[in-house]
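Recap quiz, item 2
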Amino acid sequence: MASREIAQYPSSTRRVLSVATIIFIAFYLLWTLLPFLIMFLSSFKDLLDAFQLPAPGDWGGVSLLFTFEPTTKHFENLFVDLNFGTYLGNSLIASLGSAAVSVVLGSFAAYALSRFDFRGKNDLFFWIISTRMAPVVAVLVPLYAIFRSLDLIGTLPGLILAYTTFNLPFAIWILKGFFDNVPYAVEEAAMCDGATRLQALRMILPLVAPGIGAFLVLCVLFGWNDYLFASIIGSGGAKTLPPATIGLVQPQNIQWGSIMAAGVVTTVPMLFLGLLIRRYLVAGLTMGAVRE
Amino acid sequence: MVAVNIQSVWKYYGKTVAVKDLNLLCRENSFLAILGPSGCGKSSTLRMLAGLEHISAGDIFFGEQRVNMLPPKDRDIAMVFENYALYPHKTVFENMANPLRLRGVDKAEIDRRVKAAAAMLQIDALLDRKPMQLSGGQKQRTAIGRAIVREPKVFLFDEPIAHLDAKLRAHMRGELKHLQRRLETTTIYVTHDQLEAMSMADNIAVMHEGVLQQFGTPSEIYNHPANEWVAGFVGEPPMNFLNCRLELTSEGVVAVHPACRIRLNDAQRRILEEKQAEPDVKLGIRPDNIAYRAGANSGLDIPATVFVTENLGGDMIVEVTLGDDRLTIKTKIGPIANLDDPCTIAFDVSRIHLFSTTTGVAYF
Ligand SMILES: Nc1ncnc2c1ncn2[C@@H]1O[C@H](COP(=O)(O)OP(=O)(O)O)[C@@H](O)[C@H]1O
Ligand SMILES: [Mg+2]
């Protein structure tokens, strides 16, 4: 793509395609956003209101979804009676902590792998990614044994470490690609300009920032949405939101309202994270640095 | 300012030898051009001078100081990269200001120097653009600007104007040379373009396949090429070569070619005797040193036939066939000859070069 100004010429296929695209996007949005809307609305509804559903095919009955007396009692239940504040905090610390550790260590490792040649580099690189090839459940048992002997079960550092074992190899693998895309000549120019090696690295950081930002979100999401590690390694002292939400399903009493509210509590922070990070996710920054 | 002294420097990339036992001296405040075809090790040499490339063997001195182990920032150099290497996320102004900022120059001074350099490079209207919005030539000028805002000990230029159009290139040759004369900064300038080297440099180092072929002033390189390779590389159109055999006759030493006999002068004869030349030689003569007249029996010594004529405006290039060889002749414009027209030519004997066929080394 040489220019931002791409010439487009009208044709009948293009018109049909653009209408089809709009229809597809409309359906797709409905499909993906409706569950969230219902979850959000239900979390503010009394149980009776929540089960007021229109009959299939009764389009007029859709208004039923929106007629209710808003109540915050489910949220009160979560935070006052059920300790969800702590779980929310645990979730935040575990996922952000692991993401930060993975991205910082991963960036340095990826930079080194991208810029330096040393013996066994390819083998090392392959070994790093091969640690991600086994499914999570396969390593869970040995990991549990190791963590127990280190007294890390049920602690936040333990959970952060567990997530990092999984995020870090992935971080190195992905971030190396981002560093590879930045021509080394840019750093060389910086060093000739009078920068130290580290200053030169800082100089190119803005160029990999979109990659790092995007990957940070992926790492946070991995920890945030994880259930398996959280329920086994975090059980007890480091309970996070997913296991806590499952805890609301009891044999005699499924607390639908609170489950919906817990869903909202789990979704909203990630929504904000996405908005916050969005402006850093600008691709194509490296274009024009060197003559190809 | 400092002298730059390269002593027995080698550069290996794995098994590839890029630079072989290079010895070069760039005197204080002088302008040295490293000239050679692509892949001959020019950039490798420059990058070792900058400190970007490990020196496989040998030493580099800036003045008295051995710089082998000095990182680029401590060498006080400014380099222009072959591929620009601009900061893509910074504007032209910020790109050029960067070396000054890193050295803590104050803001007003940065502003002044960047604007002065931009004006000289004719990019003052582009200071707010990012590299992506620039043409190749504009990027290259930005890269030059980034180097010349400072007054370093040594300028290192790696084909800095290779991608400009012809007119701008001519302009930049003058500007860069003027700048170097005014600042009196030791400058090492890498190029594959002999015109740049000839017109700008105090000294030229000609390289071929990692080996230094000749070091000398532009006129030495042009008038006294050290070997057949340099003779063929420098000069446009390139030098003509004829395989000849030397014969000692009553008239003196004669270079015999199947289609002509050329009597050498006494000075040349003495040199050949001194150097004990072998009888088989390669005779070289530049296109400007052959006289040409159209028509059979037009008065010059050697009869030949026209292969093609090219009109250059004021001059013309005539290619003629002489036996099995073809010669290029550059002469004042005259009537354009047809293919296979007869003509006569004559060699300016004092401008002839002879090279050994076995080693390629010049006898004279
Ligand atoms: N980083 C490198 N790795 C391996 N070989 C290289 C590298 N850089 C240059 N070379 C080789 O070294 C030789 C000289 O290259 P270079 O110094 O770039 O030549 P020039 O600048 O005169 O075109 C070439 O044969 C090139 O292929
Ligand atoms: Mg080069």
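The pocket of magnesium ion (ligand 2) is lined by residues B 42-43, 82 (CB under 6 Å).
Residues 90 and 240 of chain A are 5 Å apart (CA to CA).
End of item.
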